[in-house]
Amino acid sequence: MPGLLLDVLNGKRSDRVPLWLMRQAGRYLPEYRELRAAAGGFLAMAYDPGLASEITLQPIRRFGFDGAILFSDILVIPHAIGQELWFETGEGPRLAPPLPDGVWQGLEAMPQRLDPIYETVRLTCAALPDGVTMLGFAGSPWTVATYMVAGQGSKDHHQARELAYRDPVAFGSLIDAIERATVEYIIGQIDAGVEAVQLFDSWAGSLAPDQFERWVIAPNGRIASALHAARPGVPVIGFPKGAGEKLAAYARETGVDAVGVDETVDPLWAARAMPDGMPVQGNLDPMLLLAGGEALEARSRAILEAFSGRPHIFNLGHGISQFTPIAHVENLIATVRDWRG
Protein backbone atom coordinates (compact mmCIF):
# COMPACT_ATOMS: atom_id res chain seq x y z
CA MET A 1 0.00 0.00 0.00
CA PRO A 2 1.28 3.53 -0.73
CA GLY A 3 2.96 5.17 2.22
CA LEU A 4 2.87 8.74 3.47
CA LEU A 5 6.05 9.68 1.61
CA LEU A 6 4.71 8.48 -1.72
CA ASP A 7 1.41 10.27 -1.10
CA VAL A 8 3.23 13.54 -0.53
CA LEU A 9 5.35 13.06 -3.64
CA ASN A 10 2.09 12.68 -5.51
CA GLY A 11 1.02 16.10 -4.28
CA LYS A 12 -1.07 15.25 -1.23
CA ARG A 13 -0.69 17.37 1.90
CA SER A 14 -0.74 15.73 5.30
CA ASP A 15 -0.77 16.83 8.92
CA ARG A 16 2.16 14.48 9.49
CA VAL A 17 5.26 15.32 7.47
CA PRO A 18 7.17 12.31 6.08
CA LEU A 19 10.86 12.07 6.91
CA TRP A 20 13.98 10.48 5.50
CA LEU A 21 17.62 11.63 5.51
CA MET A 22 20.14 11.67 2.71
CA ARG A 23 22.93 9.17 3.50
CA GLN A 24 20.74 7.73 6.26
CA ALA A 25 22.32 4.33 5.55
CA GLY A 26 25.95 4.83 6.44
CA ARG A 27 28.82 5.62 8.72
CA TYR A 28 27.00 7.37 11.58
CA LEU A 29 25.30 4.05 12.44
CA PRO A 30 27.24 1.64 14.68
CA GLU A 31 25.62 -1.34 12.99
CA TYR A 32 26.90 -0.09 9.62
CA ARG A 33 30.42 0.38 10.95
CA GLU A 34 30.36 -3.11 12.41
CA LEU A 35 29.21 -4.61 9.12
CA ARG A 36 31.76 -2.67 7.08
CA ALA A 37 34.62 -3.75 9.34
CA ALA A 38 33.70 -7.36 8.64
CA ALA A 39 32.79 -6.98 4.97
CA GLY A 40 35.59 -4.84 3.56
CA GLY A 41 35.45 -1.84 1.25
CA PHE A 42 32.53 0.36 0.28
CA LEU A 43 32.33 -0.74 -3.34
CA ALA A 44 32.32 -4.42 -2.45
CA MET A 45 29.35 -3.80 -0.17
CA ALA A 46 27.50 -1.71 -2.76
CA TYR A 47 27.78 -4.54 -5.31
CA ASP A 48 26.81 -7.28 -2.83
CA PRO A 49 22.98 -7.45 -2.88
CA GLY A 50 22.72 -9.11 0.52
CA LEU A 51 24.95 -6.59 2.23
CA ALA A 52 23.59 -3.57 0.36
CA SER A 53 20.03 -4.57 1.21
CA GLU A 54 20.91 -5.03 4.87
CA ILE A 55 22.54 -1.59 4.95
CA THR A 56 19.50 -0.01 3.26
CA LEU A 57 17.25 -1.55 5.91
CA GLN A 58 19.36 -0.63 8.97
CA PRO A 59 18.03 2.94 9.43
CA ILE A 60 14.46 1.75 8.80
CA ARG A 61 14.73 -0.74 11.64
CA ARG A 62 16.37 1.74 14.00
CA PHE A 63 14.39 4.91 13.24
CA GLY A 64 11.28 3.99 11.25
CA PHE A 65 11.89 6.51 8.46
CA ASP A 66 9.17 6.89 5.84
CA GLY A 67 11.56 6.16 2.98
CA ALA A 68 14.38 3.67 2.43
CA ILE A 69 17.08 5.00 0.09
CA LEU A 70 19.01 2.45 -1.92
CA PHE A 71 22.56 1.92 -0.65
CA SER A 72 24.77 2.49 -3.67
CA ASP A 73 26.86 5.25 -5.26
CA ILE A 74 26.40 7.70 -8.13
CA LEU A 75 29.60 6.46 -9.80
CA VAL A 76 28.19 3.08 -10.75
CA ILE A 77 27.09 4.79 -13.98
CA PRO A 78 30.63 5.58 -15.23
CA HIS A 79 31.57 2.08 -14.11
CA ALA A 80 28.79 0.69 -16.33
CA ILE A 81 29.80 3.00 -19.20
CA GLY A 82 33.26 1.45 -19.06
CA GLN A 83 35.56 3.35 -16.71
CA GLU A 84 37.21 1.41 -13.92
CA LEU A 85 36.13 2.45 -10.43
CA TRP A 86 37.77 2.06 -7.06
CA PHE A 87 38.04 3.94 -3.77
CA GLU A 88 41.32 5.08 -2.27
CA THR A 89 41.30 4.95 1.51
CA GLY A 90 40.93 8.44 2.91
CA GLU A 91 40.96 10.03 -0.56
CA GLY A 92 37.69 9.02 -2.23
CA PRO A 93 36.75 7.57 -5.61
CA ARG A 94 38.99 7.07 -8.62
CA LEU A 95 37.94 6.49 -12.24
CA ALA A 96 40.25 5.32 -15.02
CA PRO A 97 40.95 6.36 -17.62
CA PRO A 98 40.12 10.00 -16.87
CA LEU A 99 38.44 11.80 -19.79
CA PRO A 100 39.99 15.29 -19.91
CA ASP A 101 38.79 15.78 -23.49
CA GLY A 102 35.40 14.17 -22.90
CA VAL A 103 36.12 11.32 -25.31
CA TRP A 104 34.22 8.33 -23.94
CA GLN A 105 33.58 6.41 -27.17
CA GLY A 106 36.50 4.01 -26.73
CA LEU A 107 35.16 2.66 -23.43
CA GLU A 108 33.64 -0.81 -23.35
CA ALA A 109 30.14 -0.57 -21.88
CA MET A 110 29.43 -3.08 -19.13
CA PRO A 111 25.77 -2.60 -18.11
CA GLN A 112 25.84 -5.98 -16.36
CA ARG A 113 27.76 -4.26 -13.58
CA LEU A 114 24.41 -2.80 -12.51
CA ASP A 115 22.65 -6.16 -12.16
CA PRO A 116 23.56 -6.62 -8.47
CA ILE A 117 21.96 -3.25 -7.69
CA TYR A 118 18.66 -4.33 -9.17
CA GLU A 119 18.85 -7.45 -7.00
CA THR A 120 19.48 -5.23 -3.97
CA VAL A 121 16.25 -3.39 -4.75
CA ARG A 122 14.30 -6.65 -5.03
CA LEU A 123 15.65 -7.99 -1.74
CA THR A 124 14.98 -4.72 0.07
CA CYS A 125 11.44 -4.33 -1.23
CA ALA A 126 10.62 -7.85 -0.03
CA ALA A 127 11.77 -6.94 3.49
CA LEU A 128 10.41 -3.39 3.89
CA PRO A 129 7.54 -2.76 6.32
CA ASP A 130 4.23 -1.71 4.81
CA GLY A 131 4.02 2.01 4.10
CA VAL A 132 7.77 2.59 3.73
CA THR A 133 8.59 3.96 0.28
CA MET A 134 11.51 2.43 -1.61
CA LEU A 135 13.63 5.23 -3.07
CA GLY A 136 16.09 4.75 -5.88
CA PHE A 137 18.57 7.30 -7.13
CA ALA A 138 21.19 8.26 -9.66
CA GLY A 139 23.66 11.06 -10.08
CA SER A 140 22.66 13.75 -12.56
CA PRO A 141 24.79 14.02 -15.71
CA TRP A 142 26.70 17.19 -14.78
CA THR A 143 27.81 15.85 -11.39
CA VAL A 144 28.74 12.44 -12.79
CA ALA A 145 30.65 14.08 -15.65
CA THR A 146 32.83 16.05 -13.23
CA TYR A 147 34.21 12.76 -11.89
CA MET A 148 34.52 11.12 -15.30
CA VAL A 149 36.50 14.03 -16.76
CA ALA A 150 38.89 14.40 -13.82
CA GLY A 151 39.06 10.73 -12.83
CA GLN A 152 38.31 11.78 -9.25
CA GLY A 153 36.55 14.41 -7.19
CA SER A 154 37.74 18.01 -7.05
CA LYS A 155 36.96 21.14 -5.08
CA ASP A 156 35.99 23.40 -7.98
CA HIS A 157 35.35 20.92 -10.84
CA HIS A 158 37.62 23.05 -12.99
CA GLN A 159 38.45 20.35 -15.54
CA ALA A 160 34.83 19.67 -16.41
CA ARG A 161 33.91 23.36 -16.34
CA GLU A 162 36.82 24.25 -18.63
CA LEU A 163 36.01 21.41 -21.05
CA ALA A 164 32.35 22.48 -21.20
CA TYR A 165 33.47 25.94 -22.39
CA ARG A 166 36.36 24.79 -24.60
CA ASP A 167 34.63 21.94 -26.40
CA PRO A 168 30.89 21.91 -25.69
CA VAL A 169 30.30 19.38 -28.48
CA ALA A 170 32.59 16.77 -26.91
CA PHE A 171 31.32 17.55 -23.43
CA GLY A 172 27.73 17.38 -24.69
CA SER A 173 28.39 13.94 -26.13
CA LEU A 174 29.61 12.76 -22.71
CA ILE A 175 26.54 14.26 -21.04
CA ASP A 176 24.32 12.47 -23.57
CA ALA A 177 26.03 9.14 -22.84
CA ILE A 178 25.52 9.58 -19.09
CA GLU A 179 21.93 10.60 -19.70
CA ARG A 180 21.11 7.48 -21.71
CA ALA A 181 22.78 5.17 -19.20
CA THR A 182 21.00 6.92 -16.33
CA VAL A 183 17.55 6.51 -17.85
CA GLU A 184 18.18 2.79 -18.43
CA TYR A 185 19.56 2.42 -14.90
CA ILE A 186 16.60 4.11 -13.23
CA ILE A 187 14.12 2.12 -15.31
CA GLY A 188 15.93 -1.01 -14.10
CA GLN A 189 15.55 0.16 -10.50
CA ILE A 190 11.85 0.88 -11.01
CA ASP A 191 11.25 -2.52 -12.61
CA ALA A 192 12.93 -4.11 -9.59
CA GLY A 193 10.55 -2.33 -7.19
CA VAL A 194 11.65 1.27 -6.63
CA GLU A 195 8.63 3.55 -6.08
CA ALA A 196 10.27 6.98 -6.47
CA VAL A 197 13.71 8.22 -7.52
CA GLN A 198 16.00 11.12 -6.73
CA LEU A 199 18.43 12.74 -9.15
CA PHE A 200 21.46 14.01 -7.23
CA ASP A 201 23.18 17.00 -8.86
CA SER A 202 25.54 17.56 -5.97
CA TRP A 203 27.85 19.96 -7.86
CA ALA A 204 25.20 22.00 -9.70
CA GLY A 205 26.19 25.06 -7.69
CA SER A 206 29.58 25.36 -9.41
CA LEU A 207 28.08 26.49 -12.73
CA ALA A 208 27.39 29.95 -14.14
CA PRO A 209 23.71 30.61 -15.02
CA ASP A 210 23.96 29.84 -18.75
CA GLN A 211 25.98 26.69 -18.04
CA PHE A 212 23.48 25.68 -15.37
CA GLU A 213 20.71 25.95 -17.94
CA ARG A 214 22.65 23.84 -20.46
CA TRP A 215 24.24 21.18 -18.27
CA VAL A 216 21.82 20.91 -15.32
CA ILE A 217 18.30 21.97 -16.32
CA ALA A 218 18.29 20.53 -19.85
CA PRO A 219 19.72 17.04 -19.08
CA ASN A 220 17.62 16.59 -15.95
CA GLY A 221 14.58 17.68 -17.93
CA ARG A 222 15.26 15.08 -20.61
CA ILE A 223 15.76 12.37 -17.98
CA ALA A 224 12.54 13.28 -16.16
CA SER A 225 10.62 13.31 -19.45
CA ALA A 226 12.00 9.92 -20.49
CA LEU A 227 11.18 8.37 -17.13
CA HIS A 228 7.66 9.76 -17.10
CA ALA A 229 7.09 8.35 -20.58
CA ALA A 230 8.61 4.94 -19.82
CA ARG A 231 7.28 4.44 -16.30
CA PRO A 232 4.31 6.77 -15.72
CA GLY A 233 3.36 7.49 -12.14
CA VAL A 234 6.82 7.09 -10.58
CA PRO A 235 7.75 10.43 -8.97
CA VAL A 236 11.11 12.01 -9.72
CA ILE A 237 12.78 14.23 -7.10
CA GLY A 238 15.35 16.67 -8.48
CA PHE A 239 18.09 17.84 -6.11
CA PRO A 240 20.40 20.50 -7.62
CA LYS A 241 22.57 21.34 -4.62
CA GLY A 242 23.87 24.89 -4.61
CA ALA A 243 21.37 26.10 -7.21
CA GLY A 244 20.32 29.09 -5.09
CA GLU A 245 18.03 31.44 -6.98
CA LYS A 246 18.31 29.17 -10.05
CA LEU A 247 16.25 26.60 -8.13
CA ALA A 248 13.00 28.22 -9.25
CA ALA A 249 13.87 27.83 -12.94
CA TYR A 250 14.98 24.25 -12.31
CA ALA A 251 11.61 23.47 -10.71
CA ARG A 252 9.66 25.08 -13.55
CA GLU A 253 11.66 23.76 -16.50
CA THR A 254 12.83 20.22 -15.69
CA GLY A 255 9.44 18.60 -15.21
CA VAL A 256 10.51 16.86 -12.00
CA ASP A 257 7.72 16.02 -9.57
CA ALA A 258 9.42 17.38 -6.44
CA VAL A 259 12.46 19.51 -5.66
CA GLY A 260 15.07 19.00 -2.97
CA VAL A 261 16.20 22.20 -1.25
CA ASP A 262 19.67 22.45 0.24
CA GLU A 263 20.52 24.13 3.53
CA THR A 264 21.73 27.40 1.97
CA VAL A 265 18.24 28.23 0.68
CA ASP A 266 15.78 30.20 2.80
CA PRO A 267 12.75 27.88 3.12
CA LEU A 268 10.39 30.87 3.22
CA TRP A 269 11.75 31.98 -0.16
CA ALA A 270 11.57 28.43 -1.54
CA ALA A 271 7.97 28.04 -0.38
CA ARG A 272 7.05 31.17 -2.36
CA ALA A 273 9.25 30.56 -5.41
CA MET A 274 8.40 26.94 -6.23
CA PRO A 275 5.46 26.22 -8.56
CA ASP A 276 2.10 26.03 -6.79
CA GLY A 277 1.44 22.60 -5.34
CA MET A 278 4.90 21.19 -6.10
CA PRO A 279 6.22 19.02 -3.25
CA VAL A 280 9.46 20.23 -1.70
CA GLN A 281 12.04 18.30 0.29
CA GLY A 282 14.47 19.62 2.85
CA ASN A 283 16.24 21.49 4.18
CA LEU A 284 17.91 21.21 7.60
CA ASP A 285 21.64 21.94 7.73
CA PRO A 286 23.45 18.62 8.39
CA MET A 287 25.85 20.52 10.66
CA LEU A 288 22.97 21.58 12.88
CA LEU A 289 21.95 17.94 13.22
CA LEU A 290 25.55 17.24 14.20
CA ALA A 291 25.49 20.06 16.78
CA GLY A 292 22.08 19.24 18.24
CA GLY A 293 20.47 21.10 21.13
CA GLU A 294 17.65 23.62 21.25
CA ALA A 295 18.74 25.22 17.98
CA LEU A 296 18.11 21.93 16.19
CA GLU A 297 14.55 21.72 17.44
CA ALA A 298 13.84 25.39 16.77
CA ARG A 299 15.18 25.31 13.21
CA SER A 300 13.36 22.07 12.45
CA ARG A 301 10.07 23.61 13.51
CA ALA A 302 10.82 26.76 11.49
CA ILE A 303 11.36 24.64 8.36
CA LEU A 304 8.17 22.71 8.99
CA GLU A 305 6.24 25.94 9.40
CA ALA A 306 7.79 27.54 6.30
CA PHE A 307 6.68 24.64 4.09
CA SER A 308 3.35 24.04 5.79
CA GLY A 309 1.39 25.49 2.88
CA ARG A 310 2.49 22.84 0.37
CA PRO A 311 3.36 19.11 0.29
CA HIS A 312 6.61 18.74 2.23
CA ILE A 313 9.08 15.95 2.93
CA PHE A 314 11.45 16.70 5.79
CA ASN A 315 15.09 15.98 4.99
CA LEU A 316 18.55 17.44 5.33
CA GLY A 317 20.07 19.95 2.93
CA HIS A 318 22.59 17.25 2.00
CA GLY A 319 23.95 14.03 3.51
CA ILE A 320 24.15 13.29 7.20
CA SER A 321 27.62 13.63 8.72
CA GLN A 322 29.31 10.40 9.78
CA PHE A 323 29.95 11.93 13.22
CA THR A 324 26.29 12.72 13.96
CA PRO A 325 25.18 11.35 17.37
CA ILE A 326 22.30 8.90 17.24
CA ALA A 327 20.54 10.87 19.99
CA HIS A 328 20.40 13.95 17.74
CA VAL A 329 18.69 11.95 14.99
CA GLU A 330 16.20 10.62 17.54
CA ASN A 331 15.49 14.18 18.73
CA LEU A 332 14.94 15.34 15.15
CA ILE A 333 12.53 12.49 14.46
CA ALA A 334 10.54 13.29 17.62
CA THR A 335 10.32 16.96 16.62
CA VAL A 336 9.07 16.17 13.14
CA ARG A 337 6.68 13.45 14.29
CA ASP A 338 5.19 15.71 16.98
CA TRP A 339 4.62 18.64 14.65
CA ARG A 340 1.21 19.14 13.08
CA GLY A 341 0.64 21.63 10.30
Protein topology:
Layout: H1 4-9, H2 30-39, H3 42-46, H4 49-63, E1 67-69, H5 76-81, E2 84-88, E3 92-96, H6 115-127, E4 133-139, H7 141-150, H8 158-166, H9 168-192, E5 196-201, H10 209-230, E6 236-240, H11 247-253, E7 258-261, H12 267-273, E8 280-284, H13 286-291, H14 294-306, E9 312-316, H15 326-338
Parallel strand pairs: 1-4, 4-5, 5-6, 6-7, 7-8, 8-9
Antiparallel strand pairs: 2-3
Helix pairs in contact: 4-6, 6-9, 7-8, 7-9, 8-9, 9-10, 14-15
Describe the structure.
This protein is of the alpha/beta class. The protein has a single domain, classed as Alpha-Beta Barrel (TIM Barrel). Helix content is about 50%, strand content about 15%. The protein is built from 15 helices and nine strands. The strands form two sheets. A seven-stranded parallel sheet has the order 1-4-5-6-7-8-9. Strands 2-3 form a two-stranded antiparallel sheet. β5, α10 and β6 form a beta-alpha-beta unit. α7 crosses α8, α7 crosses α9 and α9 runs parallel beside α10. It is globular.
